[in-house]
Amino acid sequence: MLGKVFRAFLLLSLLALTVESSAPSSEEEDSSSEKDSEEHAKGSPHGHWTYTDQDSWSVAFEHCKGKSQSPINIDTRKALFDPMLPEIVLEGYDLSDTKSLKLQNNGHTLQLSLPNTLRIVRGFDTVFIAAQLHFHWGTKEDPGSEHTIDNVHFPAEIHVVHYNSKYANLSEAASKADGLAVLGAFIGIGLHENENYENILSVLKDVSIEETDTEIPGFNVRHLLPPNLQRFYRYNGSLTTPPCFQTVNWTIFNDTIRVSRKQLAALEDTLKAEHNELLSKNFRAPQLLFGRDVQSSFRAEVSGSGSQPSGTGRSGGNSRSIGEENGNQGGFSRGDILAIAFGALFVVTLIAFIVYMVHQRKKFSRFTKDSRQNVIYKPATKEEA
Ligand SMILES: *[C@@H]1O[C@H](CO)[C@@H](O)[C@H](O)[C@H]1NC(C)=O
Ligand SMILES: *[C@@H]1O[C@H](CO)[C@@H](O)[C@H](O)[C@H]1NC(C)=O
Ligand SMILES: *[C@@H]1O[C@H](CO)[C@@H](O)[C@H](O)[C@H]1NC(C)=O
Ligand SMILES: *[C@@H]1O[C@H](CO)[C@@H](O)[C@H](O)[C@H]1NC(C)=O
Ligand SMILES: [Zn+2]
User: Fold this and answer.
1) Residues 327 and 340 in one domain
2) Residue 155: which pLDDT band, with cuts at 50, 70 and 90?
3) Which of 28, 78, 236, 238 has most ligand 3 atoms within 8 Å of CB, for mutation?
4) How many domains are there within the chain?
């Protein structure tokens, strides 16, 4: 009986919690019109683009001025905890060294082609197939992650690009609304050399010239990602390079990767882009949210003992305005409301419990008074553990 009462209340509390967290937020901006313009994208001219002229990408690539662009600044206090976000499960990432992989300097990034045996088998409505991974970085003075956490850049960022298995290949999927899933993680500086990253970084010199590639033996690609894949942010965004298709289901991990200072320097200083210029600062500035939500698979700790950005952090000047423009409605954020709602439900449960206990106690004392000895009192038995 006692157990039943408790379970009923717990269920109620949980139900209220999930209903609240999955309820659509009142968005200032309706982005459903996005799909109409999606069709035009295919015909976009394949113009030349560079990171120094990113403000004019939208001249040749109209999607780049859309309202669901990436990267973004992630305001950790505004991320909405969603307990229903499914865990990401990867398959086939542990490649045999008999398999060879193409590593390429394409003038914009360092890119590793991945066989279609690498997959995200859980975490989305369908299976997503890996196509390639690549990096974004800055310079020693200017950390170059694309996403920022509370307006702070990390030294570098890895993106593992997957396409929806319902499409034939990456290029076909790229323009589809449910086409892409990219796993992103921050790369910071640690004390030790990261051996997993040596699989790639040790051959950088072989691809220092633009549009060159080399083959490297297979390795466990999973180890390029952070150890913990359970804590992540989720939002709807875009490719961070032209044509900026707004077709990416983004996952940004909260756990980070560490490489040594020397390894990071190799990434920053080795590769050349066009005109033999250094290939660095290949990151796009954070884009406006336009009312988009960022969800998180985890509850932020109140203690603030979370993982600190390693290495030098840089405040993203223009990304600070995001928080102001889409600022919350003053008083309570949805997180606060959730907390209050849950707190209230807990109190109700507690009161019910106390009332029940008092009631039981009365019954018990009455019972013992009446029956005196000889009768063995049997308490209401719990049915289950
Ligand atoms: C991204 O994936 C989540 C989890 O499957 C899903 O709920 C959401 O609708 C997806 N976003 C898009 C734009 O398809
Ligand atoms: C991708 O698939 C489409 C449709 O099947 C096909 O026409 C195209 O050639 C493929 N592209 C590549 C790069 O394989
Ligand atoms: C992303 O878009 C999908 C489809 O429109 C929507 O169901 C989902 O809630 C969105 N995700 C977030 C985090 O807003
Ligand atoms: C991870 O989450 C904690 C808790 O919200 C936050 O303090 C920290 O900045 C986050 N780090 C990253 C890289 O997301
Ligand atoms: Zn990228």
Assistant:
1) no
2) very high
3) 236
4) 2
